[in-house]
Specification:
The chain has about 375 residues and is an alpha/beta fold. The protein is built from nine helices and 18 strands.
């Protein structure tokens, strides 16, 4: 195999993390190649769904609140620049019960960071969002400036714009590299050899497939089912502006209003069974639907008997506690590992791309210790939502 041109950085994976990393590296003046064997925001990708919630609330995890706020501004700037209204300002409603410590910590962090929010009493919840049926101890936090990003279209737009600015996009799948020290090139399954000074592997649930010895136990893909329920014709109660995006992490369920006529979205946030992103069948189960309908009956009885109009099966790629993975490969001095979205990562694409680009181009930048590939201090339980 003959090597082609040498790039400053090759980014493997054209999901939201890889797309924004390539975009920012090109913005910094680098010659960049972006590779994905299935294509940007394809149906197997964690970035491949139609919509993703962008919210600022993260309990006491201020780093993620700050990144989410930064990312929301960057997403909006980008959409204005390219002339695509791919952010829907639905607002995001947190549902809480009694003295919910996570939501109480969220309020403190939002106030400290300067994010706009409203704390809603049970009476205020009932008056503003009568679609919900909540218990007497329920209360809420509303983020009026948050909302929903049209995910698949947004990622493809980032890639399109990156290519327009000079990034080379290659529809190639990369073979796992071997050796130690400095990686000079990678091979693709089609027989191509691609040389670069740096490599960023931002390929989500494929990371443990490419680096099984290192990441096989660190990143665990799980199967996640998503349901879209049809609302009655002409009924405005379950679309924006009457219905916000919402989260109920006490019950590990979330939803979004009917956008683009796709139906009311409801998904279970609890981790599903292990899943293979290549070979896994993406058909929703009867058990998953029954659980989704239980949540509808509990929270939104007006949709109790609504028909299913669409389903999806995606995956989370979970790190031990939900923190991102952004670190050098311990065996390769010029290889970066970027992933671990853990079900909450999509919104952070722009800020993450800035961070990774700064790490690749400037070795003296500070690192966030929470993103390190280190078992020390990492709880083997979910802490970041």
């Amino acid at each position: 195999m003959n090597a082609e041109r040498t790039y400053d950085t090759a980014v493997i994976g054209a999901g939201v993390f890889g797309a924004w990393t390539a975009y920012r590296l090109r913005e910094a003046g680098q010659a960049v190649a972006l590779l994905d064997g299935y294509g940007p925001a394809h149906s197997r990708a964690s970035s491949g769904g139609e919509s993703r919630i962008i919210r600022m609330g993260y309990g006491a995890d201020e780093v993620y609140t700050r990144w989410a706020a930064r990312s929301l501004a960057l997403w909006q700037d980008f959409f204005r620049e390219v002339g695509r209204p791919l952010f829907q300002r639905t607002g995001v409603l947190w549902l809480a019960h009694a003295d919910d410590p996570y939501t109480l910590a969220t309020i403190e962090t939002l106030a400290r960071v300067g994010v706009k929010f409203e704390r809603l009493t049970p009476a205020e919840l009932e008056g503003r969002f009568p679609q919900f049926t909540l218990g007497p101890d329920a209360w809420g936090v509303f983020e009026p400036d948050s909302g929903v990003i049209m995910a698949r279209s947004a990622v493809r737009e980032v890639v399109r714009e990156a290519v327009g600015r000079g990034v080379t996009y290659l529809p190639e799948a990369v073979v796992a590299p071997e050796g130690r020290g400095r990686l000079d090139s990678v091979n693709t399954r089609s027989g191509r050899k691609l040389a670069a000074a740096n490599f960023v592997f931002a390929c989500g649930p494929w990371l443990p497939k490419i680096f099984p010895r290192l990441l096989g136990e660190w990143i665990r893909p799980t199967r996640q089912e998503v349901f879209f329920f049809g609302v009655e014709a002409g009924d405005p109660a379950f679309t924006t502006p009457a219905m916000p995006a919402w989260v109920d992490f006490m019950k590990l369920v979330y939803g979004a209003p009917d956008l683009e006529g796709r139906g009311f979205k409801l998904a279970i946030d609890a981790h599903g069974p292990p899943f293979d992103p290549d070979a896994g069948e993406r058909l929703a189960t009867a058990e998953g639907l029954a659980l989704a309908r239980e949540h509808l009956a509990r929270l939104l009885p007006g949709l109790r008997d609504a028909p299913v109009v669409e389903t999806r099966v995606c995956q989370y790629e979970n790190t031990p506690n939900g923190d991102f993975l952004i670190d050098r490969h311990p065996d390769f001095e010029n290889v970066w590992l970027v992933g671990g979205g853990s079900g909450h990562g999509f919104k952070h694409g722009p800020a993450l791309g800035e961070y990774v680009a700064s790490k690749v181009t400037r070795a003296d930048t500070d690192s966030e210790p929470r993103f390190a590939l280190s078992a020390e201090g990492k709880a083997r339980r979910r802490l970041v939502y």
